[in-house]
Amino acid sequence: MKIGVLGTGMVGEAIGTKLIQLGHEVKVGSRTANNEKAAAWVKQSGAKASQGTFADAAAFGEVLFNCTSGGASLEALGQAGAENLKGKVLIDVANPLDFSRGMPPSLLVCNTDSLGEQIQRAFPAMKVVKSLNTMSCNLMVNPGLLKEDHLVFVSGNDAAAKATVTTILKEWFGWKSVIDLGDITTARGTEMVLPLWVSLMGTLQTPVFNFKLVK
To answer: What angle, rounded to 10 degrees, do the helices at 10-21 and 36-45 form?
Structure first.
């Protein structure tokens, strides 16, 4: 499958690398077509990896991952172009974190709205599914790093899109426990986990942890 990954940071690189290992074609997108970080990743990832602008990656991908910084996601998707996004599933991994006042971060949007909702409102013809935003990037693509079973959530308005993402999570990345929280408004809850997650990372002195549900 052709996958577009928006963002060239640690998260985009981890997801792109895993997808290449699985045999998919991946185009990473950034503000400029000649982004140095993207070029280095393409060089080490082989013939199925490529780079371009946000618009290039969005046009290329049958499925898209938003791995941009949460505060810049709407701008990046605007550069990707509504026509390139139309009808496509976007797995939104981003969190609207605000580090301007130090640690732990606050949220740029919360309680009555979420970044996932903002993206869906801005691009109504796109199928936004919030997922993978409650853990470190290494766990996103390799849940087996933890010995016990743990959780990943999906939120979105389109049932078929969530089914597609659930298949990706289970069959591509190896997740066993996927919880469908409901429509895109439930992204508020998973995004609000992040200040807690950052505090736990400091306390535990590792990013390799996740949440499980006991009932």
So the answer is: 20
**Is the torsion defined by CA of 181, 82, 89, 133 positive or negative?**
negative
What are the tokens at 108? 């740029």
The enclosing H or E element of 20 equals helix 10-21
Radius of gyration of the chain (CA): 16
CATH of 2-204, one of 3.40.50.720, 3.40.50.300, 2.60.40.3880, 3.30.420.40: 3.40.50.720
Strands of the sheet with 2-6, listed across from one edge: 49-53, 25-30, 2-6, 63-66, 89-92, 127-131, 151-156, 177-182
Query: Are 115 and 95 within 8 A, CB to CB?
Result: yes
Q: Is the pLDDT reported for residue 101 higher than 90? A: no
Average pLDDT over residues 1-18: 97
pLDDT in tens, 37-74: 999 999 999 999 999 999 999 999 999 999 999 999 99
0.70 exceeded by pTM: yes
Query: What are the two backbone dihedrals, phi and then psi, of residue 41, each rounded to the nearest 5 degrees?
Result: -65, -45
| Domain boundary assignment for the chain | 2-204
Coil vs helix vs strand at 141: helix
Work out the average pLDDT over 128-150.
97
